[in-house]
Amino acid sequence: MNLAEARAALKTAKRVAVLTGAGISAESGIPTFRDAQTGHWARFRPEDLASPPAYARDPEMVWEWYAGRYREVLNAQPNEGHRLLAGLEREKGEGFFLATQNVDGLHARAGSKRLVELHGNLLSARDEKTGEIFPLAAPNALQTPPTSPNGNRMRPNVVWFGEFLPEDALEAAQNAFHTCEVALIVGTSGVVYPAAGLALEAMAEGAVVIEINPDATELTPLLTFSLREKASAGLAQLLA
Ligand SMILES: NC(=O)c1ccc[n+]([C@@H]2O[C@H](COP(=O)([O-])OP(=O)(O)OC[C@H]3O[C@@H](n4cnc5c(N)ncnc54)[C@H](O)[C@@H]3O)[C@@H](O)[C@H]2O)c1
C-alpha cells in the first residue's frame, strides 16, 4: 500500500480505531518514561518507582516523583498530532475510537472525547480504600500523599508495572480494533501488550493498519503500511 491508498482508505472508512503511545507527546516536550528520570531520579529504575512494592516501601518518594510529572504535563500543551486526532473524531463521529497508553491527559485537553486512557492519567488519584478517582489539587496546593474527600490516602491513578489494565477500557479498545476498517498506530514502540495485540487483532480481522513512527518497530513488518514520520507530520499527510 502507498500513501495515496492509505489516505483513501482512511477517508472512506466509517470505523477508525487509533492507538497512541509516548511518541505522540514527544512534540509537546514530554519525555519518554525512561527519559523522564533526570537529576536525582536518574538513580532509580522505572520499576523501582512505578510499582506496587515501590509504593508500599516509600509512598512519599513515589508521590514526589509523580507530583513532578504532574507539574510537567500541566506545563505542556497538546500538539498538532493531538489536535488532528480530535479533528478526525469530529469527522467520523461514533465510528471513531482512540485508545492511548499515555498518562499525560493531552488527548483530552486537545478535545478528544471518544477516548480511553489504558494506563490511567497523572491528573487524578485513586482512593486506596474505595477505588474512587478524584482530580489532584493544583500543583501549588498539592500535599503528598494526597487525601481523598473520604479522608483516605490516595495513590497515583496510573497502571504500574505488574498491574492489570482496567478491564472496561481494554474491552472497549479490543471491540473497536476488532471492528474497525482502518487502524492507526501512532508513536508507540509496539512491543508491550496491549499495543501489539490491538494492532495484530485489527490486521487479523482484515483492517488496513497504518503505523506512524519516525523509526521502524517490531510491528512494522506485520502491518499494512508504515509512515516514517513524526506523529504530527504523518497525521497531516494522511489526513490531507
Ligand atoms: N506522555 C506520556 O504519557 C508517557 C510518556 C512516556 C511513557 N509513558 C508510558 O510508558 C509506556 C511506553 O510505551 P510507548 O510505546 O507508549 O512508548 P515507547 O517509549 O516505548 O515508544 C515511543 C515510540 O514513539 C516513537 N516516537 C518518538 N518520537 C516520535 C514522534 N515525534 N512521533 C511519533 N512517534 C515518535 C519512538 O520511535 C518509539 O517507537 C507507555 O505504556 C506509557 O504509559 C507515557
TrEMBL record:
Binding-site residues, NAD(+): Q101, N102, V103, D104, G187, T188, S189, N213, P214, D215, A231
Active site: residue positions: H119
Pfam family for this entry, one: SIR2
Matches recorded under Gene3D superfamilies: SIR2/SIRT2 'Small Domain, TPP-binding domain
Main location: cytoplasm
Enzyme Commission code(s) on record: 2.3.1.286
Keyword NAD attached: yes
Keyword Transferase among record annotations: yes
Gene Ontology molecular function, alphabetical: histone deacetylase activity, NAD-dependent; NAD+ binding; protein-malonyllysine demalonylase activity; protein-succinyllysine desuccinylase activity
Domain Deacetylase sirtuin-type: 1-240
CDD domains named among the record's database cross-references: SIRT5_Af1_CobB
Catalytic reaction(s) noted: N(6)-acetyl-L-lysyl-[protein] + NAD(+) + H2O = 2''-O-acetyl-ADP-D-ribose + nicotinamide + L-lysyl-[protein]; N(6)-succinyl-L-lysyl-[protein] + NAD(+) + H2O = 2''-O-succinyl-ADP-D-ribose + nicotinamide + L-lysyl-[protein]
InterPro entries with a match to the protein in the record: DHS-like_NAD/FAD-binding_dom, NAD-dep_sirtuin_deacylases, Sirtuin, Sirtuin_cat_small_dom_sf, Sirtuin_class_III, Ssirtuin_cat_dom
Binding site residues for substrate: Y66, R69
Residues annotated as signal peptide: none
Protein function: NAD-dependent lysine deacetylase and desuccinylase that specifically removes acetyl and succinyl groups on target proteins. Modulates the activities of several proteins which are inactive in their acylated form.
Protein family: Belongs to the sirtuin family. Class III subfamily.
Domain remark text: 2 residues (Tyr-66 and Arg-69) present in a large hydrophobic pocket are probably involved in substrate specificity. They are important for desuccinylation activity, but dispensable for deacetylation activity.
Alphabetical list of HAMAP family matching this protein: Sirtuin_ClassIII
Protein name per UniProt: NAD-dependent protein deacylase
Organism of provenance: Deinococcus cavernae
Gene from which the chain derives: cobB
